[in-house]
Specification:
mainly alpha; single chain; globular
């Protein structure tokens, strides 16, 4: 059994893979009124976590713990670049 989620980009470079991710992000966010462009323009980590939750994950309820975790991850990866 193949584990390829996007067989149309197998063997393509990082640019094609990133473009496919953004395309998928955008099409899924548009279902509920969001867009990848809006999401990618957000500069506040907590606001980005809320937007992603609202327009991608769409959980039954919002928890500020999601924003806390996003902020912690951002700080960790920003420090360890």
């Amino acid at each position: 059994m193949s584990k390829q989620f996007f067989p149309d980009i197998v063997g393509q470079g990082a640019d094609a893979q990133i473009a496919k991710i953004v395309e998928t992000l955008d099409s899924n966010m548009r279902v509920t009124g969001g867009s990848a462009a809006e999401f990618l323009a957000i500069t506040d980590v907590r606001e980005a976590a809320k937007y992603f939750s609202d327009f991608w994950e769409r959980p039954a309820f919002w928890s500020s713990k999601r924003a806390d975790n996003a902020e912690a991850a951002y700080k960790y990866f920003a420090k360890n670049q």
